[in-house]
Amino acid sequence: MSTPTPTPMVGLREDAVVASGDGVLTITCPFGTVALRGLPPAVEALLGELPGTLAERDDLAERLLAAGGTSHDAALLYLTLSRLHPVLVHAVEPLLRVVPIARGARFQPPDLSPGDTVQLSKFAFVRRSEQGLVLESALSLHRVTLTEDAMPLLAALGRPVMVKEAPEALAHLVAAGLAFAGDDEERDPALRSWDFHDLLFHSRSRSGRHDQPFGATFRFLDDLPPEPVIKPVPEGAAVELYRPCLEEAAAADPPLTTVLETRRSVRRYAGPPTIRQLGELLYRAARVRRMYGPAPGMPYEASSRPYPGGGAVYELELYLTVARCEGLDSGVYYYDPLGHRLVTLPARPEDAQAMLATASLATGGIADPDVLITFTSRFRRMSWKYSGVAYAATLKTTGVLYQTLYLVATAMGLSPCGLGSGDSDLAARTFGLDWATESSVGDFLIGGPPAE
Q1: How far apart are CA 95 and CA 166, in angstroms?
Q2: Beta strand pairing call for 371-378 and 316-322
Q3: Nearest Cα to 385, choosing from 226, 216, 205?
């Protein structure tokens, strides 16, 4: 392995804005501001030239002296650079650039010996971005932009590499938290318990550890129309469902505390549910109560349903795979939440059986499912509004729909059981969906009265 001769350099994030006033120099970037007081005008002017540029530290000092600065100014420049962690870019040209992406970013070069070994973090990954290839990790508060010259080193870091092979580049990767010396990462019990995808999802679906767009950004507002509030109902024979009187249901229900305290997952049934019970359950838990919008600050149609949903977006759809239900043929159905009816889908019997078998497997083989309710998400309905949190919000909505079904089913004397896994490819095939457009995010069993 050979790498070009490295040159350590520094600069400011290209989107950093440097401003001076009332004796305070501020450097602002998307996630915060660094304020510096008492800097000489020559140092302030030099820092104002740094956004989006790179230079060696000693070259910066020489430029400062050439512009009339003093040796004291040069010493102050070095001290100032050491305090700009959240906005200061560290580069090893022509290999890589380490860019801070959060206010808590700290770049502390490690004390490495030539004989030490360094290995890429198991949480690190490479992806394509507007800057080209970037190296990132859920553990790191930096992003590393890579050049083609860095590829041999990066490939070698799948195994331990001696520091003497590329001391500057390896020190920068360790300082950025994207590589580790020795077996530090493997010995950390907190890190050993995380899967790669879980830690990445956690770090990117909450603010504080990245600089990506986040929240209700409406990023597609001018490019794509929002998905409709109600999905077009598929063609097929319709089964009208029972609409309960909510006042009568409320009078018959146990108290809320009783429902909460007796709620449990039930996997064995005394018998199947009836179509009347299924209709009441879906009406009370998942129907569309009303639609409204667009409105100021909400440039899309929304709806009201019995369970809460982020932004009233309600991207979830319900599909039923029925093995046994009195008054309803076995088969696969789509639940129309506005019309409160089931629409028969042309699913293959073997796919329906596979859906039920997969659900049984998720219970450890205990349950012989009567009715499987699969939640899918129309992902673009949520991501049209939200950046960074769209999928996390979908999972939260899935969780509250789980609880709503649990409570209503418990109040009705039915057997509820939320499942922790499912086969999204199988579900997409069974329901005739495009996996990337709409696929399953939750599965829930409903049986008749508990066997006990």
Answers
A1: 11
A2: antiparallel
A3: 216
